[in-house]
Design goal:
Layout (H helix, E strand, L loop, with lengths): L8 E5 L4 H12 L4 E5 L7 H11 L12 H5 L8 H10 L8 E4 L2 E4 L11
Parallel strand pairs: 1-2
Antiparallel strand pairs: 1-3, 3-4
Length: 120
């Protein structure tokens, strides 16, 4: 599966996350039409995660939840190679920072949720 390349808005969402729920509500309040991908149930593949990093303009470690216990359990550090981090995120999607909104060749992390408004 590939991330959208058109003007479609896609929310990478974790319903258990308060910031993710707030971002979802914000998009709805703005009247935005968007698709939702529950990335814990439908994880991003390594190539999608690499693509996401390009859209975010960030290195993999910069959109990884490095304080998650799973990060250390995977033997990762903030100095780990990009490919190691991408592989771990693909296998353990809870490691991906959330929520993320994608539109075209850009993406934004909703921390705070208002950061995604630039994509509307």
């Amino acid at each position: 599966m590939a991330l959208p390349t058109d003007d479609t808005l896609l929310l990478l969402h974790n319903p258990k996350c308060s910031k993710s729920r707030a971002t979802l509500a914000l998009l709805e309040e703005q009247g935005a039409t968007f698709e939702t991908r529950l990335y814990l149930e439908d994880p991003l593949a390594e190539d999608e995660l690499r693509d996401l990093g390009q859209r975010l303009g960030r290195a993999p470690v910069d959109y990884t939840r490095t304080k998650q216990v799973e990060f250390a359990e995977a033997g990762l550090t903030k100095d780990s190679a990009d490919e190691e981090i991408l592989s771990a995120m693909a296998k353990t999607p809870i490691l991906m920072e959330r929520p993320v909104v994608i539109r075209g060749d850009r993406a934004a992390i909703g921390r705070p949720p208002e950061d995604v408004l630039a994509l509307l």
